[in-house]
Amino acid sequence: MNAKASLVTLFSACAIAPLCQADLQSINDQQLSQLTGQAGVSIDMSVEGSIDKILYVDTDDAGRLGLKDIRISGANGEAVSIEGMTIDVHGEDGVRIDYGKVGTYNAETKEYNALNIKIGDVTINNTTIGTLKVENYTNFITNYSVAMMNLFFDTELTLNTDEGAAGKYIHGGLIIQGRPMNAESGVSDGGIIIDAKSGGFIERVAWIDNGNEMGISSVGIFDTDGNEIIAMNHHLELDLVDHGDKGTALQISGVKMDGHIAIGTMYLGDPMNSLGSLMISGINMEETTLKVYAH
Q1: Does 240 fall in a domain?
Q2: Using an 8 Å Cβ cutoff, are 238 and 251 in contact?
Q3: What percent of the chain lies above the pLDDT cut of 70?
Q4: Which residues constitute the domain of residue 186?
Q5: Model-level pTM greater than 0.85?
Q6: Is there a domain that residue 27 lies in?
């Protein structure tokens, strides 16, 4: 990835962020008086939105990368709920963001109304190269999904759920903080440290080109404590550094992922024609350093 590509990613993230619409409940005087001494913010959101077009132009070579007809919603174009998000600035942890529930699951119909992202048209130099879909991401993992993963991968995974429950929400979040003080200089060396927890399930990720399709489906994201499914841990460090005669660089280091990505089905063409299943575990690139700079 070069600096220009990273700018596209950053701009896209910034552009998508305002699409989240929070349905906030009003607070009366009595309720407000009860908040004395409390800190932090809680948010429930109902998310649905779109972007017509994002265009990146390489001013050196006049190349163009375009993303058109971007849609973020729940199933069937409905809004998707994200509940129990909290934001706190902690004295030791730094900025802490946690979330409780992404999307909903109907145990009777066995259907999700979860987070869907569609990029209707991806173009390079005004030539269409396809459509990208991410269908029904949720942090709710069902007992049925666990049973299928045990069947595919010959594991003995368990999900600690309430009696009679169809599954469980895997709560996640992230902590963003600066580097600690340097023992010798007494000041921070600068940079950002990000630690996160996540887990959940994606029904399908698909690339579609002229009616032809490839993708993966029934994707589980989790870690384990023994055989019990829990949230996955991530670690990442970012810093702006002097890269000699190449100028300032964005340094990415300390990348680590404790957990598993279980892909139930990989396919080309018909999603029902499986090429097989895949389990990825324990990605550790802590000793790898990536420096991104302009040329």
Answers
A1: yes
A2: yes
A3: 84
A4: 3-22+40-292
A5: no
A6: no
Q: Phi, psi (5° rounding) for residue 73? A: -165, -175
Rounded mean pLDDT, 39-56:
92
Interval 191-242: pLDDT, tens: 999 999 999 999 999 999 998 999 999 999 999 999 999 999 999 999 999 9
Q: Are strands 20-22 and 41-47 parallel, antiparallel or unpaired?
A: antiparallel
**Domain count of the fold of the chain:** 1
Cα-based torsion angle of the residue sequence 146, 148, 154, 158 in order, rounded to the nearest 10 degrees? 10
Structure tokens at 295: 């040329």
Measured over the CA atoms of residue 147, residue 148, residue 149 and residue 150, the dihedral's sign is positive
Name residues whose C-beta falls within 8 Å of residue 256's C-beta, 6 or more positions apart in sequence: 233, 234, 235, 283, 284, 285, 286
**What residue has token string 């569609």?**
118
Please check whether residue 94 lies inside any domain of the structure: yes
Asked whether residue 29 is domain-assigned, the answer is no
The amino acid present at 271, given as its one-letter code, is P
